[in-house]
Design goal:
By secondary structure, the chain is an alpha/beta fold. The protein has two domains: about 20-250, 3-Layer(aba) Sandwich (Rossmann fold), CATH 3.40.50; about 335-405. Helix content is about 35%, strand content about 20%. Strand 2 and strand 3 (about 50) form a beta hairpin. Helix 3 (about 140-150) packs parallel to helix 5 (about 185-195) and helix 5 packs parallel to helix 6 (about 215-230). The structure holds adenosine-5'-diphosphate. Adenosine-5'-diphosphate binds near residues 29, 76, 78, 83 and 307.
């Protein structure tokens, strides 16, 4: 006979291989631009009667596991939430929802002294080596400061360790008494690395650490980081928008778009077998030296939508070259492409109402749609004729684009990796059964 253990609150059993586990993490900011819209006032100017707070959904339900000793690269266009994710993981920002486990311990459960002690194990290196170094402090003091804050060693011990660290990151220990302005950009970033290492951390978040450096210097600093990782058994979360940097440094890669992770997998898998149209577009935007290698280019169209009101379903769908046609219309590829091109032209008000007949021919010439589709297209042309562009846009969008599975359901799929056996996740409905 077996007896059931009573359910008690337990510290989560850590996965041996995992150092940091990010679980359903969200970080929303109250939108400043939306602030004015927060209240709807009564007509006589009385008290607010309705609240309507807008949130910037900078990080929206992100889950990731970072393995011990690996570099997890985080890549995506500017504004997609990479820095906010990093700062929330570090608890420099309070999460709106979700958890971050460090070696099995929920950082959200820690406060005061316990959190401070944990911070010793978690360090960061930011983009701008100039502004993160106090110009009035000598290098020795800069490197020793975190040790002092955590009560590590005595004065003499800290000086010895600071000099060793300077040596370890490729600087001359004799420069202990110099000021930051006496160093080059690359050297200043090395001072930052020494400072981050001073508390002997396990995990370092590197937020665009080489972006401000000359390309020739970037590789040298990246090599130093790689060597230090090997020597000191470090785990990195490495943020960059530059794909060649990400490729060089990462073991696994997470691709972020509008607050969400849209694809992740091994470095080789992401670069050689990308399965999300956003990743493919990012890769295609890197110049290819060999013209024979140019396949179908996926150009990133338009701007990143606002994270205040992100698109439903797949957030990339408003820019995606591969949006899936709605099943009920049974469009072929040519018809679907024509409808999407026309809707885009209407949304952008790309033509004048006097050109309507011409446009009809340009977008739909040679195509014959089913009656119900034809009716909608005619109705939209009627709206444009009357200069009612918004109604035309709304009709086309609601009838066609928003009926796509891409607008209706959030995609979450695992795909079979071609390189290695690590999990390959791609948030794209093209991978549905
Ligand atoms: P990335 O690092 O990928 O460039 P960020 O994390 O800096 O992206 O920004 C993600 C989104 O969150 C952007 O739309 C940005 O404007 C917004 N954001 C970042 N910080 C704040 C803040 N403190 N208040 C309001 N919005 C913010």
């Amino acid at each position: 006979m077996t007896t059931r253990e009573p359910q008690t609150e337990m510290k989560r059993v850590p996965d041996e291989d995992v150092l940091v586990e990010i679980e359903n993490l969200k970080k929303y900011f109250v939108s400043e631009s939306g602030y004015i819209d927060r209240f709807k006032f009564e007509l006589d100017g009385g008290l607010p009667i309705e609240y309507d707070i807008n949130y910037v959904k900078a990080v929206d339900d992100v889950s990731l596991k970072i393995k011990k000793g690996e570099t997890l690269g985080l890549v995506g266009e500017s504004g997609c939430g990479k820095s906010t994710l990093a700062r929330t993981v570090l608890r420099l920002l309070e999460p709106t929802e979700g958890s971050v486990y460090f070696d099995g311990e929920d950082l959200a459960d820690l406060s005061g002294e316990n959190l401070r002690r944990r911070r010793k194990d978690i360090q960061m290196i930011f983009q701008d080596p100039q502004s993160s170094l106090d110009p009035r402090w000598k290098v020795g003091k800069i490197v020793e400061e975190p040790m002092e804050a955590h009560g590590m060693l005595d004065d003499e011990g800290r000086e010895r360790r600071a000099k060793e660290l300077l040596d370890q990151v490729g600087l001359d220990p004799q420069h202990y008494n110099r000021y930051p302005h006496e160093f080059s950009g690359g050297q200043r970033q090395r001072i930052n690395i020494a400072r981050a290492l001073s508390t002997n951390p396990d995990f370092i978040v590197c937020d665009e650490p080489v972006s401000a450096l000359d390309v020739s210097i970037q590789a040298q600093v990246l090599n130093t980081l790689k060597e230090l990782q090997e020597e000191l058994d470090l785990t990195f979360l490495f943020i960059a928008h530059d794909l060649s940097v990400i490729r060089y440094i990462s073991d696994r890669i997470a691709v972020m778009y509008l607050g969400e992770i849209v694809e992740f997998g091994d470095e080789k898998e992401i670069f050689n077998n990308p399965q999300h149209p956003y990743t493919q577009s990012l890769l295609d935007s890197v110049p290819v030296p060999d013209p024979d290698q140019e396949g179908r280019k996926k150009i990133l169209e338009g701007d990143v939508p606002s994270p205040i009101n992100p698109p439903s379903g797949c957030r990339f769908r408003t820019r995606c070259p591969d949006v899936i046609p709605p099943e009920e219309f049974a469009f072929d590829d040519e018809e679907w492409a024509a409808i999407r091109r026309f809707t885009r032209a209407v949304t952008r008000r790309e033509f004048d109402r006097s050109e309507l007949a011409e446009m009809k021919e340009r977008y739909f010439g040679g195509l014959s749609f089913r009656g119900d589709t034809d009716d909608v297209l005619e109705e939209s042309l009627g709206y444009i004729e009357d200069e009612e562009w918004e109604q035309a846009e709304q009709l086309l969008t609601e009838t066609f684009l928003e009926k796509s599975i891409c607008a209706k359901e959030k995609p979450e799929y695992d795909v079979t990796p071609e390189f290695g056996s690590s999990r390959h996740y791609a948030a794209c409905h093209l991978h549905r059964d």
